[in-house]
Protein backbone atom coordinates (compact mmCIF):
# COMPACT_ATOMS: atom_id res chain seq x y z
CA UNK A 1 0.00 0.00 0.00
CA UNK A 2 2.88 2.37 0.74
CA UNK A 3 4.14 1.93 -2.84
CA UNK A 4 0.75 3.11 -4.08
CA UNK A 5 1.12 6.56 -2.48
CA UNK A 6 4.87 6.91 -2.91
CA UNK A 7 4.80 6.22 -6.66
CA UNK A 8 2.21 8.38 -8.51
CA UNK A 9 2.98 6.59 -11.78
CA UNK A 10 1.16 3.54 -10.41
CA UNK A 11 -2.18 5.38 -10.30
CA UNK A 12 -1.52 6.99 -13.68
CA UNK A 13 -0.71 3.58 -15.19
CA UNK A 14 -3.87 2.12 -13.63
CA UNK A 15 -6.00 4.93 -15.08
CA UNK A 16 -4.47 4.42 -18.56
CA UNK A 17 -5.08 0.67 -18.47
CA UNK A 18 -8.66 1.12 -17.21
CA UNK A 19 -9.35 3.82 -19.83
CA UNK A 20 -8.27 1.55 -22.68
CA UNK A 21 -10.68 -1.16 -21.54
CA UNK A 22 -13.45 1.42 -21.06
CA UNK A 23 -13.03 2.83 -24.57
CA UNK A 24 -13.16 -0.71 -25.98
CA UNK A 25 -16.43 -1.25 -24.08
CA UNK A 26 -18.15 1.89 -25.45
CA UNK A 27 -19.71 0.09 -28.47
CA UNK A 28 -21.25 -2.39 -26.03
CA UNK A 29 -22.88 0.40 -24.06
CA UNK A 30 -24.15 1.98 -27.26
CA UNK A 31 -25.58 -1.34 -28.52
CA UNK A 32 -27.40 -2.01 -25.22
CA UNK A 33 -29.14 1.37 -25.10
CA UNK A 34 -28.43 3.68 -28.08
CA UNK A 35 -30.81 6.41 -26.90
CA UNK A 36 -29.52 6.39 -23.33
CA UNK A 37 -25.93 6.36 -24.59
CA UNK A 38 -26.47 9.50 -26.68
CA UNK A 39 -28.11 11.27 -23.74
CA UNK A 40 -25.25 10.26 -21.43
CA UNK A 41 -22.64 11.60 -23.85
CA UNK A 42 -24.39 14.98 -23.90
CA UNK A 43 -24.76 15.11 -20.10
CA UNK A 44 -21.85 16.70 -18.15
CA UNK A 45 -22.93 14.82 -15.02
CA UNK A 46 -22.69 11.46 -16.79
CA UNK A 47 -19.27 12.34 -18.15
CA UNK A 48 -18.17 13.36 -14.66
CA UNK A 49 -19.34 10.05 -13.23
CA UNK A 50 -17.45 8.25 -15.99
CA UNK A 51 -14.24 10.13 -15.12
CA UNK A 52 -14.67 9.37 -11.41
CA UNK A 53 -15.31 5.73 -12.27
CA UNK A 54 -12.12 5.58 -14.33
CA UNK A 55 -10.12 7.14 -11.51
CA UNK A 56 -11.57 4.61 -9.06
CA UNK A 57 -10.89 1.72 -11.45
CA UNK A 58 -7.38 3.07 -12.00
CA UNK A 59 -6.77 3.15 -8.25
CA UNK A 60 -7.93 -0.47 -8.04
CA UNK A 61 -5.57 -1.48 -10.85
CA UNK A 62 -2.74 0.45 -9.16
CA UNK A 63 -3.42 -1.39 -5.92
CA UNK A 64 -3.19 -4.69 -7.79
CA UNK A 65 0.07 -3.60 -9.44
CA UNK A 66 1.58 -2.72 -6.08
CA UNK A 67 0.51 -6.09 -4.68
CA UNK A 68 1.78 -8.15 -7.65
CA UNK A 69 5.15 -6.47 -8.01
CA UNK A 70 7.14 -9.25 -9.72
CA UNK A 71 7.79 -8.49 -13.40
CA UNK A 72 7.16 -12.00 -14.71
CA UNK A 73 3.84 -12.21 -12.82
CA UNK A 74 2.66 -8.85 -14.15
CA UNK A 75 3.59 -9.83 -17.69
CA UNK A 76 1.58 -13.05 -17.27
CA UNK A 77 -1.51 -11.13 -16.09
CA UNK A 78 -1.08 -8.58 -18.85
CA UNK A 79 -0.84 -11.29 -21.46
CA UNK A 80 -3.49 -13.81 -20.46
CA UNK A 81 -5.96 -11.55 -18.65
CA UNK A 82 -5.70 -7.95 -19.81
CA UNK A 83 -4.55 -8.60 -23.40
CA UNK A 84 -6.89 -11.54 -24.00
CA UNK A 85 -9.92 -9.64 -22.69
CA UNK A 86 -9.05 -6.53 -24.71
CA UNK A 87 -8.66 -8.64 -27.86
CA UNK A 88 -12.05 -10.26 -27.31
CA UNK A 89 -13.64 -6.85 -26.72
CA UNK A 90 -12.24 -5.55 -30.00
CA UNK A 91 -13.70 -8.52 -31.87
CA UNK A 92 -17.12 -7.86 -30.35
CA UNK A 93 -16.75 -4.16 -31.23
CA UNK A 94 -16.21 -5.20 -34.83
CA UNK A 95 -19.27 -7.45 -34.56
CA UNK A 96 -21.37 -4.44 -33.49
CA UNK A 97 -19.92 -1.67 -35.67
CA UNK A 98 -19.13 -3.39 -38.99
CA UNK A 99 -22.74 -3.86 -40.21
CA UNK A 100 -23.68 -0.37 -38.99
CA UNK A 101 -20.80 1.15 -40.96
CA UNK A 102 -21.93 -0.74 -44.07
CA UNK A 103 -25.45 0.68 -43.71
CA UNK A 104 -24.02 4.21 -43.52
CA UNK A 105 -21.91 3.69 -46.65
CA UNK A 106 -24.51 1.75 -48.68
CA UNK A 107 -28.00 2.31 -47.17
CA UNK A 108 -30.16 -0.04 -49.28
CA UNK A 109 -27.74 -2.88 -49.86
CA UNK A 110 -26.31 -2.40 -46.38
CA UNK A 111 -29.77 -2.91 -44.89
CA UNK A 112 -30.02 -6.26 -46.70
CA UNK A 113 -26.50 -7.16 -45.52
CA UNK A 114 -27.30 -6.17 -41.94
CA UNK A 115 -30.44 -8.34 -41.95
CA UNK A 116 -28.49 -11.29 -43.41
CA UNK A 117 -25.68 -10.77 -40.89
CA UNK A 118 -28.08 -10.68 -37.95
CA UNK A 119 -29.97 -13.71 -39.24
CA UNK A 120 -26.72 -15.67 -39.70
CA UNK A 121 -25.40 -14.92 -36.23
CA UNK A 122 -28.73 -15.87 -34.65
CA UNK A 123 -28.77 -19.30 -36.26
CA UNK A 124 -27.98 -22.22 -33.92
CA UNK A 125 -25.81 -23.60 -36.72
CA UNK A 126 -23.44 -20.64 -36.34
CA UNK A 127 -22.78 -21.32 -32.66
CA UNK A 128 -22.82 -25.11 -33.07
CA UNK A 129 -20.05 -24.95 -35.67
CA UNK A 130 -18.09 -22.36 -33.65
CA UNK A 131 -18.29 -24.40 -30.43
CA UNK A 132 -17.42 -27.60 -32.29
CA UNK A 133 -14.36 -26.00 -33.88
CA UNK A 134 -13.26 -24.52 -30.52
CA UNK A 135 -13.56 -27.96 -28.93
CA UNK A 136 -11.47 -29.47 -31.73
CA UNK A 137 -8.79 -26.80 -31.29
CA UNK A 138 -8.54 -27.41 -27.55
CA UNK A 139 -8.57 -31.19 -27.96
CA UNK A 140 -5.67 -30.90 -30.38
CA UNK A 141 -3.60 -29.42 -27.53
CA UNK A 142 -3.47 -32.78 -25.74
CA UNK A 143 -3.29 -35.06 -28.80
CA UNK A 144 0.17 -36.70 -29.26
CA UNK A 145 1.41 -36.20 -32.83
CA UNK A 146 4.68 -38.18 -32.63
CA UNK A 147 6.52 -35.61 -34.74
CA UNK A 148 9.75 -35.59 -32.68
CA UNK A 149 9.53 -31.98 -31.52
CA UNK A 150 7.25 -30.51 -34.19
CA UNK A 151 3.97 -31.07 -32.34
CA UNK A 152 3.50 -27.31 -32.06
CA UNK A 153 3.67 -26.87 -35.82
CA UNK A 154 1.26 -29.75 -36.39
CA UNK A 155 -1.23 -28.37 -33.88
CA UNK A 156 -0.90 -24.91 -35.45
CA UNK A 157 -1.69 -26.33 -38.88
CA UNK A 158 -4.73 -28.17 -37.51
CA UNK A 159 -5.92 -25.00 -35.80
CA UNK A 160 -5.76 -22.85 -38.94
CA UNK A 161 -7.50 -25.57 -40.97
CA UNK A 162 -10.25 -25.81 -38.33
CA UNK A 163 -10.82 -22.05 -38.46
CA UNK A 164 -10.99 -22.01 -42.26
CA UNK A 165 -13.15 -25.11 -42.65
CA UNK A 166 -15.64 -23.93 -40.02
CA UNK A 167 -16.13 -20.59 -41.76
CA UNK A 168 -16.40 -22.29 -45.18
CA UNK A 169 -18.93 -24.82 -43.90
CA UNK A 170 -21.14 -22.20 -42.30
CA UNK A 171 -20.84 -19.70 -45.17
CA UNK A 172 -21.70 -22.19 -47.91
CA UNK A 173 -24.63 -23.65 -45.94
CA UNK A 174 -25.98 -20.21 -44.99
CA UNK A 175 -25.69 -18.81 -48.53
CA UNK A 176 -27.23 -21.90 -50.10
CA UNK A 177 -30.18 -21.96 -47.72
CA UNK A 178 -30.86 -18.26 -47.19
CA UNK A 179 -30.85 -17.07 -50.82
CA UNK A 180 -32.58 -20.09 -52.36
CA UNK A 181 -35.26 -20.19 -49.63
CA UNK A 182 -36.08 -16.51 -50.05
CA UNK A 183 -36.38 -16.93 -53.81
CA UNK A 184 -38.41 -20.14 -53.66
CA UNK A 185 -40.55 -18.88 -50.78
CA UNK A 186 -41.36 -15.66 -52.67
CA UNK A 187 -39.89 -13.57 -49.83
CA UNK A 188 -37.59 -11.95 -52.37
CA UNK A 189 -40.66 -10.71 -54.30
CA UNK A 190 -41.74 -8.67 -51.29
CA UNK A 191 -38.23 -7.30 -50.90
CA UNK A 192 -38.01 -6.40 -54.59
CA UNK A 193 -41.29 -4.48 -54.32
CA UNK A 194 -39.44 -2.05 -52.06
CA UNK A 195 -36.68 0.21 -53.46
CA UNK A 196 -34.16 -2.67 -53.49
CA UNK A 197 -33.00 -4.10 -56.81
CA UNK A 198 -31.58 -7.54 -57.54
CA UNK A 199 -27.99 -6.36 -57.42
CA UNK A 200 -28.45 -4.92 -53.95
CA UNK A 201 -30.26 -8.07 -52.81
CA UNK A 202 -27.59 -10.55 -53.97
CA UNK A 203 -24.52 -8.54 -52.98
CA UNK A 204 -26.12 -7.55 -49.68
CA UNK A 205 -26.84 -11.20 -48.86
CA UNK A 206 -23.26 -12.13 -49.74
CA UNK A 207 -21.76 -9.36 -47.61
CA UNK A 208 -23.97 -10.17 -44.62
CA UNK A 209 -23.05 -13.86 -44.65
CA UNK A 210 -19.38 -13.05 -45.28
CA UNK A 211 -19.31 -10.71 -42.27
CA UNK A 212 -20.73 -13.50 -40.10
CA UNK A 213 -17.99 -15.82 -41.40
CA UNK A 214 -15.39 -13.16 -40.58
CA UNK A 215 -16.64 -12.85 -37.00
CA UNK A 216 -16.56 -16.64 -36.62
CA UNK A 217 -13.00 -16.73 -37.97
CA UNK A 218 -11.83 -14.01 -35.59
CA UNK A 219 -13.47 -15.66 -32.56
CA UNK A 220 -11.88 -18.99 -33.45
CA UNK A 221 -8.59 -17.16 -34.05
CA UNK A 222 -8.80 -15.77 -30.50
CA UNK A 223 -9.35 -19.32 -29.25
CA UNK A 224 -6.44 -20.59 -31.35
CA UNK A 225 -4.10 -17.94 -29.93
CA UNK A 226 -4.94 -19.05 -26.40
CA UNK A 227 -4.72 -22.76 -27.25
CA UNK A 228 -1.33 -22.45 -28.97
CA UNK A 229 0.13 -20.70 -25.96
CA UNK A 230 -1.46 -23.29 -23.66
CA UNK A 231 0.11 -26.11 -25.68
CA UNK A 232 3.55 -24.68 -25.08
CA UNK A 233 2.83 -24.67 -21.35
CA UNK A 234 1.28 -28.14 -21.51
CA UNK A 235 4.19 -29.74 -23.38
CA UNK A 236 7.60 -28.28 -22.39
CA UNK A 237 9.28 -29.74 -25.49
CA UNK A 238 7.42 -27.04 -27.49
CA UNK A 239 8.53 -24.22 -25.20
CA UNK A 240 12.26 -24.72 -24.53
CA UNK A 241 12.14 -22.71 -21.29
CA UNK A 242 15.24 -20.89 -20.14
CA UNK A 243 15.57 -19.92 -16.44
CA UNK A 244 17.52 -16.84 -17.49
CA UNK A 245 14.63 -15.72 -19.71
CA UNK A 246 11.52 -15.48 -17.46
CA UNK A 247 9.52 -13.53 -20.06
CA UNK A 248 9.85 -16.29 -22.66
CA UNK A 249 11.41 -14.17 -25.41
CA UNK A 250 14.11 -16.69 -26.31
CA UNK A 251 11.62 -19.55 -26.55
CA UNK A 252 9.38 -17.44 -28.83
CA UNK A 253 12.32 -16.91 -31.16
CA UNK A 254 13.03 -20.65 -31.29
CA UNK A 255 9.47 -22.02 -31.46
CA UNK A 256 7.55 -19.34 -33.40
CA UNK A 257 9.84 -16.91 -35.27
CA UNK A 258 6.94 -14.96 -36.84
CA UNK A 259 5.48 -14.24 -33.39
CA UNK A 260 8.91 -13.16 -32.17
CA UNK A 261 9.26 -10.79 -35.14
CA UNK A 262 5.82 -9.31 -34.40
CA UNK A 263 6.91 -8.64 -30.83
CA UNK A 264 9.58 -6.23 -32.05
CA UNK A 265 6.86 -4.00 -33.54
CA UNK A 266 3.86 -4.48 -31.26
CA UNK A 267 5.37 -4.63 -27.75
CA UNK A 268 7.08 -1.17 -27.89
CA UNK A 269 3.79 0.42 -28.99
CA UNK A 270 1.97 -0.94 -25.94
CA UNK A 271 4.80 -0.01 -23.58
CA UNK A 272 4.74 3.61 -24.74
CA UNK A 273 1.10 3.92 -23.65
CA UNK A 274 1.86 3.28 -19.98
CA UNK A 275 4.32 5.12 -17.68
CA UNK A 276 7.42 3.30 -16.51
CA UNK A 277 7.04 0.87 -13.65
CA UNK A 278 4.84 -2.15 -12.94
CA UNK A 279 2.14 -0.85 -15.30
CA UNK A 280 4.55 -1.11 -18.18
CA UNK A 281 5.00 -4.82 -17.42
CA UNK A 282 1.24 -5.32 -17.81
CA UNK A 283 1.36 -3.39 -21.07
CA UNK A 284 4.26 -5.56 -22.16
CA UNK A 285 2.20 -8.68 -21.49
CA UNK A 286 -0.69 -7.24 -23.52
CA UNK A 287 1.76 -6.49 -26.32
CA UNK A 288 2.97 -10.09 -26.25
CA UNK A 289 -0.61 -11.32 -26.58
CA UNK A 290 -1.32 -9.02 -29.53
CA UNK A 291 1.99 -10.09 -31.11
CA UNK A 292 0.67 -13.66 -31.13
CA UNK A 293 -2.68 -12.41 -32.42
CA UNK A 294 -1.06 -10.39 -35.24
CA UNK A 295 1.03 -13.32 -36.44
CA UNK A 296 -2.00 -15.63 -36.34
CA UNK A 297 -4.28 -13.07 -37.99
CA UNK A 298 -2.19 -13.26 -41.17
CA UNK A 299 -2.95 -16.99 -41.33
CA UNK A 300 -6.64 -16.44 -40.61
CA UNK A 301 -6.89 -13.77 -43.33
CA UNK A 302 -5.14 -16.15 -45.74
CA UNK A 303 -7.78 -18.80 -45.07
CA UNK A 304 -10.58 -16.25 -45.18
CA UNK A 305 -9.80 -15.52 -48.82
CA UNK A 306 -10.87 -19.09 -49.56
CA UNK A 307 -14.03 -18.51 -47.52
CA UNK A 308 -14.96 -15.45 -49.59
CA UNK A 309 -14.56 -17.33 -52.88
CA UNK A 310 -16.70 -20.29 -51.86
CA UNK A 311 -19.41 -18.11 -50.28
CA UNK A 312 -19.53 -16.04 -53.48
CA UNK A 313 -19.85 -19.21 -55.58
CA UNK A 314 -22.58 -20.56 -53.29
CA UNK A 315 -24.44 -17.23 -53.42
CA UNK A 316 -24.26 -17.13 -57.22
CA UNK A 317 -25.44 -20.73 -57.64
CA UNK A 318 -28.25 -20.25 -55.09
CA UNK A 319 -30.02 -17.92 -57.52
CA UNK A 320 -30.72 -20.86 -59.83
CA UNK A 321 -30.01 -24.17 -58.12
CA UNK A 322 -31.51 -25.96 -55.16
CA UNK A 323 -29.75 -26.38 -51.84
CA UNK A 324 -28.52 -29.96 -52.40
CA UNK A 325 -27.14 -29.33 -55.90
CA UNK A 326 -25.46 -26.14 -54.69
CA UNK A 327 -23.71 -27.94 -51.84
CA UNK A 328 -22.49 -30.75 -54.13
CA UNK A 329 -21.04 -28.28 -56.65
CA UNK A 330 -19.32 -26.26 -53.89
CA UNK A 331 -17.78 -29.46 -52.51
CA UNK A 332 -16.49 -30.38 -55.97
CA UNK A 333 -14.99 -26.90 -56.42
CA UNK A 334 -13.36 -27.14 -52.99
CA UNK A 335 -11.72 -30.51 -53.63
CA UNK A 336 -10.80 -29.87 -57.26
CA UNK A 337 -9.47 -26.41 -56.41
CA UNK A 338 -7.03 -28.05 -53.99
CA UNK A 339 -6.23 -31.11 -56.11
CA UNK A 340 -5.83 -29.54 -59.56
CA UNK A 341 -2.35 -27.99 -58.96
CA UNK A 342 -1.16 -31.26 -57.43
CA UNK A 343 -2.48 -33.27 -60.41
CA UNK A 344 -0.75 -30.93 -62.85
CA UNK A 345 2.55 -31.25 -60.99
CA UNK A 346 2.36 -35.05 -60.75
CA UNK A 347 1.44 -35.53 -64.44
CA UNK A 348 4.27 -33.25 -65.54
CA UNK A 349 6.73 -35.37 -63.58
CA UNK A 350 5.24 -38.59 -65.04
CA UNK A 351 5.91 -37.80 -68.69
CA UNK A 352 5.52 -40.67 -71.12
CA UNK A 353 2.89 -42.40 -69.00
CA UNK A 354 0.53 -43.01 -71.89
CA UNK A 355 -2.88 -41.72 -72.92
CA UNK A 356 -4.35 -42.03 -69.42
CA UNK A 357 -1.72 -39.80 -67.83
CA UNK A 358 -2.13 -37.30 -70.66
CA UNK A 359 -5.90 -37.17 -70.20
CA UNK A 360 -5.57 -36.72 -66.45
CA UNK A 361 -2.98 -34.00 -67.04
CA UNK A 362 -5.29 -32.21 -69.48
CA UNK A 363 -8.21 -32.30 -67.02
CA UNK A 364 -5.92 -31.10 -64.25
CA UNK A 365 -4.78 -28.13 -66.34
CA UNK A 366 -8.38 -27.37 -67.33
CA UNK A 367 -9.58 -27.34 -63.72
CA UNK A 368 -6.49 -25.39 -62.67
CA UNK A 369 -7.38 -22.63 -65.17
CA UNK A 370 -11.14 -22.49 -64.62
CA UNK A 371 -11.37 -23.14 -60.88
CA UNK A 372 -9.83 -21.02 -58.11
CA UNK A 373 -6.37 -22.09 -56.99
CA UNK A 374 -7.40 -22.87 -53.42
CA UNK A 375 -4.05 -24.46 -52.62
CA UNK A 376 -2.60 -20.93 -52.63
CA UNK A 377 -4.53 -20.31 -49.41
CA UNK A 378 -2.86 -23.22 -47.60
CA UNK A 379 -1.06 -22.12 -44.42
CA UNK A 380 0.98 -25.31 -44.19
CA UNK A 381 3.83 -24.09 -46.39
CA UNK A 382 4.37 -21.12 -44.07
CA UNK A 383 4.35 -23.30 -40.94
CA UNK A 384 6.18 -26.49 -41.93
CA UNK A 385 9.49 -25.28 -43.33
CA UNK A 386 13.12 -25.56 -42.31
CA UNK A 387 14.03 -21.86 -42.44
CA UNK A 388 11.79 -19.30 -40.67
CA UNK A 389 9.58 -17.14 -42.85
CA UNK A 390 9.84 -13.37 -42.25
CA UNK A 391 6.54 -12.05 -40.89
CA UNK A 392 6.19 -8.98 -43.11
CA UNK A 393 7.24 -10.90 -46.22
CA UNK A 394 4.49 -13.38 -45.42
CA UNK A 395 2.12 -10.45 -44.89
CA UNK A 396 2.87 -9.24 -48.42
CA UNK A 397 2.08 -12.70 -49.76
CA UNK A 398 -1.20 -12.73 -47.81
CA UNK A 399 -2.22 -9.40 -49.32
CA UNK A 400 -1.40 -10.66 -52.82
CA UNK A 401 -3.46 -13.84 -52.38
CA UNK A 402 -6.28 -11.83 -50.79
CA UNK A 403 -6.31 -9.61 -53.88
CA UNK A 404 -6.62 -12.74 -56.03
CA UNK A 405 -9.55 -13.91 -53.92
CA UNK A 406 -11.27 -10.53 -54.30
CA UNK A 407 -10.93 -10.76 -58.08
CA UNK A 408 -12.35 -14.28 -58.20
CA UNK A 409 -15.12 -13.31 -55.76
CA UNK A 410 -16.09 -10.40 -58.00
CA UNK A 411 -16.21 -12.69 -61.04
CA UNK A 412 -18.40 -15.21 -59.20
CA UNK A 413 -20.80 -12.48 -58.06
CA UNK A 414 -21.00 -11.02 -61.58
CA UNK A 415 -21.96 -14.46 -62.90
CA UNK A 416 -24.51 -14.70 -60.11
CA UNK A 417 -26.01 -11.34 -61.09
CA UNK A 418 -26.32 -12.54 -64.71
CA UNK A 419 -28.06 -15.72 -63.55
CA UNK A 420 -30.32 -13.78 -61.17
CA UNK A 421 -31.29 -11.13 -63.68
CA UNK A 422 -33.42 -13.48 -65.76
CA UNK A 423 -34.80 -15.44 -62.82
CA UNK A 424 -38.59 -15.25 -62.55
CA UNK A 425 -39.51 -14.37 -58.96
CA UNK A 426 -43.27 -14.33 -59.41
Description:
With 426 residues, the protein is mainly α. It has two domains: 67 residues, no CATH class; 354 residues, no CATH class. Helices cover 83% and strands 0% of the residues. It has 17 helices and no strands. α2 packs parallel to α13, α8 crosses α14 and α10 packs across α13. It is flat, with a radius of gyration of 25 Å. The N and C termini lie far apart (75 Å).
A few lines on this structure:
With 426 residues, the chain is mainly α. The chain has helices at residues 2-6, 8-32, 34-42, 44-67, 71-105, 107-122, 124-142, 151-184, 187-193, 198-234, 249-255, 257-273, 278-318, 323-349, 355-370, 380-383, 391-421.
Top keywords for this entry?
single chain, 426 residues, mainly alpha
Number of domains: 2
Shape: flat
Main sheet summary: none
Q: What percent strand?
A: under 5%
Helix content: over 70%
Rg value? 25 Å
How do the helices and strands follow one another from N- to C-terminus? HHHHHHHHHHHHHHHHH
Rounded to the nearest angstrom, the distance between the terminal CA atoms is: 75 Å
Q: Structural class, please?
A: mainly alpha
Total helices: the number is: 17
Rounded mean pLDDT score: 87
Number of strands: 0
Unreliable residue runs: none
Helix-strand layout with pairing:
Layout: H1 2-6, H2 8-32, H3 34-42, H4 44-67, H5 71-105, H6 107-122, H7 124-142, H8 151-184, H9 187-193, H10 198-234, H11 249-255, H12 257-273, H13 278-318, H14 323-349, H15 355-370, H16 380-383, H17 391-421
Helix pairs in contact: 2-3, 2-4, 2-5, 2-13, 5-6, 5-10, 5-13, 6-10, 7-8, 7-10, 8-10, 8-13, 8-14, 10-13, 10-17, 11-12, 12-13, 13-14, 13-17, 14-15
